[in-house]
Specification:
The protein is globular, with a radius of gyration of 15 Å. With 129 residues, it is α/β, with parallel strands linked by helices. It contains three helices and six strands. β5 and β6 form a beta hairpin. The strands form two sheets. The chain has a four-stranded mixed sheet with strand order 2-1-3-4. Strands 5-6 form a two-stranded antiparallel ribbon. Helices cover 29% and strands 26% of the residues. α2 packs antiparallel against α3.
Length: 129
């Protein structure tokens, strides 16, 4: 289980939103081991005055927050970051300087989905990668 929240300037985020979703999904499936039929992405395009660009970043500055079950190794998470930096640059033209990724992990018992606590679900994929 993983949910993605993507924040960026409206004028920069909207034109690449479908391709960005594909990039996020491919990395989640290939690196984090999520099932191909699970795509939980939420986009938050914002006006420039509501999403200030930090010094040294461009108007394409993007923040990705990933909320997921705890259990993946540091090596897996670093591979995920590297994959996003590479694919955002290659496929979206967003440089690593303009991408910020934060992973927030919670134990499965702190989620409730499909009518049950997360630690009572029989998942069709492994979380410990």
């Amino acid at each position: 289980m993983a949910q993605f929240k993507v924040y960026g300037r409206d004028d920069a985020l909207r034109p690449v939103r479908p391709a960005m979703s594909d990039v996020l999904h491919a990395a989640a499936v290939d690196v984090l081991g999520l099932p191909a039929d699970k795509r939980f992405h939420r986009f938050f395009p914002m006006d420039a005055e509501d999403f200030p660009t930090p010094t040294g970043r461009s108007e394409r500055y993007t923040v990705v927050e990933v909320l997921m079950f705890a259990g993946r190794s540091t090596t897996t998470k670093k591979a995920f970051y590297r994959r996003l930096f590479q694919d955002f640059e290659d496929r979206l033209g967003i440089t690593p300087t303009d991408l910020e990724v934060t992973v927030l992990e919670t134990p499965r018992h702190d989620w409730a989905i499909r009518g049950a606590p997360g630690d009572e679900l029989d998942l069709p994929y492994r979380v410990q990668v």
